[in-house]
Amino acid sequence: MRLIGGVASSDATDGELLSAHIAGDTAAFAVLFRRHQDHLWLTARRASYSAEDAADSLQEAMLSAHRTAGAFRADAAVRSWLHRIVVNACLDRIRRNKVRPTVPLGEEAREPRDPTDRYADIDLSIVVEKALFSLPPEQRAAIVAVDMEGYSVADAAAALGVPTGTIKSRCARGRQKLALVLQSVRADDTDL
Questions:
Q1: Partners of 7 in beta bridges
Q2: Residue 155 predicted with pLDDT over 90
Q3: Which long-range contacts (CB under 8 A, 24 or more apart) does 107-110 make?
Q4: What is the rounded distance in angstroms from the CA atom of residue 109 to the CA atom of residue 103?
Q5: Which residue among 3, 65, 81, 123 is the one 20 to 30 A from 75 at the CA level?
């Protein structure tokens, strides 16, 4: 363990940082979170309806990871463990928010740009987001992990806590549903 004045060093491994956190080092978890913050934020954003839901889910996930770090079994990488906690927090929030679905406009919609580019980007973003959220949460999580984040099927299975065959079938079914939804949108556009 690399400690500098009782504070975990940023060159420590993820496992060392988690062990230091469990042992009582108050700065170790912050170093671990900063190391993976960008990836975890993208994961939360892709698995959530809005940036606000993603932020709330990420915060809930990190609180959960902070509290339950002692239960980490080291049968997966720390990053995969954190990823799974974030995805589960997002799925929980989606289930809680089912009664009030919304489609937020992204931050880029507020920036002044060429109106043609901006509207095309917004339209495409809304169409893809609606199509993605028409999937059941389990299929959406599998597709986000494999197709959007580039995880292998085995890594996605480990992160989501399901067998690889389940990931394969969720991705296949989800892709079929996405193709149908996006084809109907494309057909609607050509009718105009």
A1: 4
A2: no
A3: 107/51
A4: 13
A5: 3
